[in-house]
Specification:
about 180 residues; about 0% strand; globular
């Protein structure tokens, strides 16, 4: 797999910790609200989150012209998911073991639901997505379900890395790895 020189996982955690430091401030709450309001919009239309994202994003991650980089997209979606998880929750995020993936997160959810068949269908819809936008949509839906079932444990660094790899041609590897851990 192609590696970027700067570790996308550590950049994701840096952004998360930056937000957490402002959790109780009006600015921090505003940024989280802007991130939640950006859901469903393409990155190039999410103007309200650009100041925050671009301030903390390494130059090497920036796209050129109108082209959005895989790093920009991965970090944008990761932060949207963080904002969803933090809505109404003041729990501090702990960095999880580096091997803890979204497959593990969804496995924890699966252990808490009564109707595993319905959840399995949602998960299968996620991993059979045909493009990144569809994958992102179903990922956010699964995360909302996790939040509603109080099983919210996500390794944001690992998520950002997986989202990056998904976009650069390793989507099958990401999907298989998540499925292995989910089931």
């Amino acid at each position: 797999m192609e590696e970027n020189k700067i570790n996308i996982s550590s950049v994701a955690w840096k952004m998360i910790h930056y937000l957490e430091a402002m959790n109780d401030t009006s600015l921090g709450k505003g940024i989280l609200a802007d991130l939640r309001n950006s859901i469903g919009k393409p990155f190039n239309e999410a103007y309200s989150v650009w100041p925050y994202l671009f301030e903390l994003m390494p130059k090497e991650f920036l796209g050129v012209g109108e082209k959005i980089s895989a790093e920009e997209n991965a970090l944008f979606l990761t932060l949207q998911i963080y904002a969803l998880g933090q809505q109404g929750d003041k729990t501090k995020i702990e960095e999880a073991d580096g091997s803890f993936s979204m497959g593990d997160s969804f496995h924890l959810l699966r252990a808490r639901v009564d109707n595993k068949t319905a959840l399995d269908q949602r998960f299968n819809t996620l991993i059979t997505s045909t493009n990144f936008e569809e994958f992102a949509y179903h990922l956010r839906q699964m995360v909302k379900l996790m939040k509603s079932k109080s099983t919210f444990k996500i390794n944001y660094g690992h998520l950002a890395k997986d989202l990056f790899y998904y976009q650069i041609g390793n989507e099958k590897t990401v999907k298989v790895n998540w499925a292995r851990k989910y089931y």
